[in-house]
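pinging the channel bc i need a second pair of eyes. not urgent but kinda urgent?? the chain im working w is below, pasted from the shared doc
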Amino acid sequence: MFKDSLGDTPAGLLKRDNARFGSKEIESVREIYSQWRAVPQDFAPANDELWPLISHHQDVSSGGAVLRGYGTKKHKFAPTPVAAKDELAELVMHLVACTGVVFADPLRRLFYDDLDRPQARVEIDVFTGVVEHLAMIEEPIRRGAVHVSNVHPTLESSDRQIWLEPFGLGPSLSTLLKLIEVGYGLPEISRARAQAYADDCAALLRVCGIRPMDLPAGVNNPLVAIELFGRALMEVSWQLANVTESTADLYLANALERRIFEVLVEDCGDQYEALQVGGRREPGRRHLKMLASTGLPLFEPTRLSMTDVLDVRSDSTFTGWRSELSKAMDTYQNALLAGARSQDASAQFAEHIRSAGLSLARDAKKSSFKTALAAATVPMSVGLASSTAMGIANNSQTIALGAAVAGVSTAAVTLGSYLRGRPSRADAARGRFIAAFDLDAARST
């Protein structure tokens, strides 16, 4: 896009002695960007590949290498200051574990507002900042490890609303927003009203299926709890609206986001349970099985340059590592479906990955990669949807045919299609989503 509009890549433009951008350059990029945005992308990874979706939202999770909000940390898009993070080290961590990552469109927020209306004016310093961040990930984009999605659902879009409606929070989340507004006025009201407010917040979370255990440890302020819920709801609804079109993988970074997804699966499962399929009622297995104790080879990502990790990824040894990770996920799911205890399935998974990590550390040809690896493993949560979720997936076509008479929502049909597999593949996929890496644990171990 930058080559077509300005004759060079972001990195190439910044290397020029007179590297300055004005309205002429911005409008040239806008013209080409509008054309790119309007064309559906041909992105169809295989079912055994992991391509987590990295959103534009600010990272508010507790710890972990989440990568969210890439390129917005020091610009107007970040509503509050964000703790300094080594974004490139986080990206290296992801590229070791995943086939690649899918970034939210970094230019869309320059040229369009939250309602998808064109921005009349783009600030030059903000545009320059986005170019700088694109330059930093130019090599992995060029080498196919990073994909940029042009799918960007707005809050008011129907694709987004189907994931918000089950929570019953009113038009444009009015119930939630009013409660947050009242919370900011608490210092000026009585103690009795403050207690009533805390009760209202607890009641709203309860009816939305959120439990105290789903909130970060130490969160006792009801306003903070409600705001965290609102942010997580925005993230999960945006991701679901995106991945069902872009075929990326859900990227759920904390327990609250995973619980919101679980509530949605349960809501769809309730509808599915009530649907007569082939003259019989499907069993009402409603829970999402989670794996939260996987592992990666322990390594220090700051020891690796981006070129190093991209070079290693093209080596047959690393291809074998990714294949073993996929096999381990399948082994875990099959063990659960066969009736194994969760602890036993997790232990089997961990042993599988530990062996693969040792092989990778032994056989990797890049000396810098060898020095960055160790024999231990660090936590990485990978979620595997089963039970009702997979029941929906396996019968999504039947549901679509009977939805009108059975009252099955668009969300149930859409979720079923997503869990069933990527559009270009005939074989059924496992439920796909990946959670955040614990980068802090990797550094302190």
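so Confidence is low (pLDDT under 50) at residues 74-82, 275-294, 423-431, 440-445. and The chain is about 50% helix and 10% strand. — does that match what u expected or am i reading it wrong
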